[in-house]
UniProtKB/TrEMBL annotation:
It comes from Leptospira ognonensis. GO terms for biological process: translation. This is Large ribosomal subunit protein uL24. GO terms for molecular function: rRNA binding; structural constituent of ribosome. Keywords: Ribonucleoprotein, Ribosomal protein, RNA-binding, rRNA-binding.
Length: 127
């Protein structure tokens, strides 16, 4: 008997290490929300998704409850893929593409005294 094959990407990636953390300022670099900035509200590591404040908002209709007796439409943030965001640093210069005014930088890791630090690349400044 043949087993059902999982489609590519359906397997959850457990405990994947991400460079973006909660409460970081990020810039959306791809998709319909490209160019928007916001603060990271939550990260879903299993699906490689990130929730950003004020980005990818959609309208949802809710039933009346005790907390919300009127019910009706509410606007909530939906997740976007982790690869579509970049760490935003207003003090950083974009040396890779100086003509573009993108104030976003790549992040890397550095081991120092047994601790792992997040640094900007290629400058090497600590975040």
């Amino acid at each position: 008997m043949a087993t059902k094959l999982a489609y590519r990407g359906s397997e959850p990636t457990k405990f994947k290490k991400t460079k973006i953390k909660k409460d970081d300022e990020v810039l959306v670099i791809a998709g319909k929300e490209k160019g928007k900035k916001g603060k990271v509200l939550a990260i879903d590591k299993r699906k490689d998704r990130v929730y950003i404040e004020g980005v990818n908002k959609r309208r949802r209709y809710v039933r009346p409850t005790q907390e919300n007796p009127q019910g009706g439409a509410i606007e909530i943030e939906f997740p976007i893929h982790l690869s579509n965001v970049m760490f935003s640093d207003p003090k950083a210069d974009n040396k890779a593409k100086p003509k573009k005014k993108i104030k976003a930088v790549r992040l890397g890791f550095l081991k120092k005294d047994g601790k792992t630090l997040r640094i900007t690349r290629p400058e090497g400044k600590e975040v």
